[in-house]
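Same chain as my last thread, 411 residues:
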Amino acid sequence: MQSLKRLVTSRRRDSLIRCKRNLSSLPINSSAADDLQNQVLVEDKASSRIAILNRPSSLNALNTNIGARLHELYASWEDDPNIGFVVMKGSGRAFCAGGDIVSLYHLINEGKIEECKDFFRTLYSFIYHLGTYLKPHVAILNGITMGGGAGISIPGMFRLATGRTCWLYICYLVFATPETQIGFHPDAGASFHLSRLPGHLGEYLGLTGEKLGGAEMISCGLATHFSHTEKLPLIEEELGNLVTDDPSVIESTLEKYSDVAYPEKISALHRIEVLDKCFGHDTVEEIIDALESEASATNDAWCNSTLKKLKQASPLSLKVSLRSIREGRFQTLDQCLIREYRMSFHGISKQISNDFCEGVRAQVVDKDFSPKWEPPSLEKVSNDMVDQYFAPLSESEPNLELPTEQREAFN
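reply #2:
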């Protein structure tokens, strides 16, 4: 066991060095003292550490610095025998709204593609680290949790959803994967997690970017526990007083304050039979045809709302995302992350389409909410365009490097 731990430590140290190298190559200006250290705060507890994402004005959006800082902290805590478990939460009204897409938008338009790649490499490396973490991990999903926010929480052992949580791609208080609405694809390991949801719920969430509340998250397995928000101070206090590295002790504390929650009547989870019938088809075109037939026969508001979301999304992103989720069913987390890294690189390169920058411009920067997708319709999205997203990178472009030998050692 000790030799295995030494192997893990060595692999992670190499990964951490790469993260630091990526970070050190970025220009640091006065605002980047945005206080770099303060973007992730740390609270020391009896036998645990709390990592607090601390960019509340940006809904704790992730950047390269946060990814590298988390990687460094988690590696040091994993090696510390006095630390039994780790907790992650966000400051303000969000857990984490995903990647800082506005910064990525400006970097791409300034031609700083290498800095964008550093971001994806650093983030994906941390997500893999969390997926193989040797100590219990509790993510407190209180508030908006989107895209990469799901990526840095779901691989951990425990996910506590609250009455404020919405998984957006997945309200207001959000858990979601909204990438197709900005011309991108579910990333940060999303193709792995979405593909493992019941039936074809993952395709529905990934293509529409629909929101899930905390009750829905616990119902479909995205969260392990659910508690009302007002109980959080009690939960955090009790977790902070624990002296343990035993997952069962941590779980007992979470269960002590757990509440029973049921999805609202309007939830898609109450339409799972229709959802599976429509989203189980092989192509986006067939999914839309099935929804239109269902809407015509039943005049169901859910069908009409779902169709509207699909027709607002990038046609290319819809096809790429569907294929990604379907491939994720047959891949491990590390395989999904490596593939999604390639897809992300192709998505920001503008060599296939400018949809990502156009989507961010329309939805977040200019906020005219009228993106001009390229191509503008599903019928104009060729199979070749979709294939290019999944193609290997050129010989001059390194793939995402993950210490996958660790996982093999555990299996």
